[in-house]
UniProtKB/TrEMBL annotation:
Bound cofactor: record note: Binds 2 Zn(2+) ions per subunit.
Entry binding sites for Zn(2+) 1: H82, D93, H191
Family under the similarity heading: Belongs to the peptidase M20 family.
PANTHER family, sorted: ALLANTOATE AMIDOHYDROLASE, ALLANTOATE DEIMINASE-RELATED
Record has Hydrolase as a keyword: yes
Domain of life: Bacteria
Pfam families: M20_dimer, Peptidase_M20
Peptidase M20 dimerisation domain span: 213-312
Molecular-function GO terms, alphabetical: hydrolase activity, acting on carbon-nitrogen (but not peptide) bonds, in linear amidines; metal ion binding
Co-factor(s): Zn(2+)
Organism the protein comes from: Ectothiorhodospira magna
Protein name: N-carbamoyl-L-amino-acid hydrolase
Keywords on record: Hydrolase, Metal-binding, Zinc
Residues given in the record as Zn(2+) 2 binding sites: D93, E128, H384
Length: 418
């Protein structure tokens, strides 16, 4: 194992500088995809790439690449994540993985280490899904169609085509951002855990074994709007009572059809007409269900459909649902999981193998490359909020683990990973 170490003071400075871009009065960071904050963050990242004397490249999906020892013929060891945020997000979700990747490239360049494979760091466009998916990594993995690009819109009705055109970009060029499997030797991503497991266990490093899949539905229940005082309880077609019954079944469904990694959440509810003295005749709600096993996820989907249908039949309600998104679960490459674990042991870092309950660009990239992920703790499990943070010493450990894993991969041929 090489004795190289990342320049942690420089990484700290990058984190602090980037976290000031898009910060609002609420202390949250607003760098939603194709917003002014996102544009400023991307400009800053490009400047840092060029200042490090690395090659800069922007592909058709507006993914930003920093490259070291690039010749276009050898497959690269790629690191990546995203700089865009949710509204009012924190300073590390996504951004930390990009900045650690940049620091790894700078450290390797300054060390003068000879590479069998070139290195890349990528800022993927719109990982947070303003336009409905993980746009940048889906483009790179060849998972976009012209219809998907044309139809992509945000919650305000702004199209992806319009948002990119405002920056002088052609959204259809994303179809040319596809990379072949032969062009990527391996893909690694460092990310904050966004959950409490590592923090509560006082463990500095997590090695991700699997990334959750999910399905997200919008469900509408249709009954009969009526007077709250004059309609007897046994004569109501109350859609909120239907929702309450359905929600009470979540625990049973997970116990009977799920696994320890299963999650189900109703995060948004809208009652209409929404008056205190009116039986709600229309209820719309979301259902987000996740698991790391595809068969388990399918079983949960079937169980939730059956339960919804049975509840509606008993209560005289109509229902319909729209599938808002679906992502298949993915297992990380066993060879990379083993490599990351061995490097953590060699560095003396206590580590834990665990699943990811959130979706990541790594999930999409696994379709075209061997993929591995490193987690660092999130204090109190907080994420997607201004309270999101990771202790500096844990960031440093995660960054040095990435450096050692990347150096090992960059010296390998593909067969040694099998």
């Amino acid at each position: 194992m090489t004795h190289a170490h990342i320049n942690f003071q420089r990484l700290q400075q990058d984190i602090q500088e980037l976290s000031a871009i898009g910060r609002d009065a609420d202390r949250g960071i607003h760098r939603m995809a194709f917003s002014e904050g996102d544009l400023a963050g991307r400009r800053w990242f490009k400047e840092r790439i060029l200042a490090a004397d690395l090659d800069f490249y922007e592909d058709g999906a507006a993914n930003l690449h920093g490259r070291l020892d690039w010749d276009g013929s050898r497959p690269s060891v790629m690191m990546g994540s995203h700089l865009d945020t949710v509204p009012g997000g924190g300073p590390l979700d996504g951004a930390l993985g990009v900045l650690v990747g940049l620091e790894v490239l700078r450290t390797v360049k300054e060390s003068g280490i000879t590479l069998r494979h070139p290195l890349e760091v990528v800022n993927f466009t719109d990982e947070e899904g303003r336009f409905g998916g993980l746009f940048g990594s889906q483009a790179m993995a060849g998972q976009l169609s012209p219809a998907q690009v044309h139809n992509a819109r945000d919650l305000d009705g702004i199209s992806l085509t319009e948002a990119m055109a405002a920056w002088g970009l052609d959204a259809n060029a994303a179809l040319f951002a596809r990379r072949s499997k032969e062009s990527i030797h391996a893909y690694l991503e460092l990310h904050i855990e966004q959950g409490p497991v590592l923090d509560r266990g006082d463990i500095s490093v997590g090695v991700v074994e699997a990334i959750t899949g999910l399905f997200k539905w919008e469900i509408q229940l249709k009954g009969q709007t009526n007077h709250a005082g004059t309609t007897p309880m046994d004569m109501r077609n109350d859609t909120f009572q239907g929702l309450a019954e359905f929600a009470s079944e979540i625990g049973r469904i997970l116990e009977e059809h799920g696994s320890p990694h299963s999650r189900a959440t109703i995060g948004r509810v809208e009652l209409r007409p929404g008056a205190a003295n009116t039986v709600p005749g229309h209820t719309t709600f979301s259902l987000d269900v996740r698991d790391t096993d595809p068969d388990t996820l399918k079983g949960l989907s079937d169980a939730f459909r059956r339960t919804l249908s049975a509840m509606a039949r008993r209560r005289g309600l109509m229902f319909e649902f729209e599938v808002l998104s679906e992502l298949p679960p993915q297992r990380c490459d066993p060879g990379l999981v083993q490599l990351l674990s061995e490097k953590a042991d060699a560095l003396g870092f206590a580590h834990l193998r665990l699943p990811s309950g959130a979706a990541h660009d790594a999930q999409i990239m696994s379709g075209i490359a061997r993929t591995g992920m490193v987690f660092v703790p999130s204090l109190e499990g907080r994420s997607h909020s201004p309270a999101e943070w990771t202790n500096w010493e844990d960031i440093e450990r995660g960054a040095n683990l990435m450096l050692q894993a990347v150096l090992s991969l960059a010296a390998q041929d593909k067969e040694t990973l099998r």
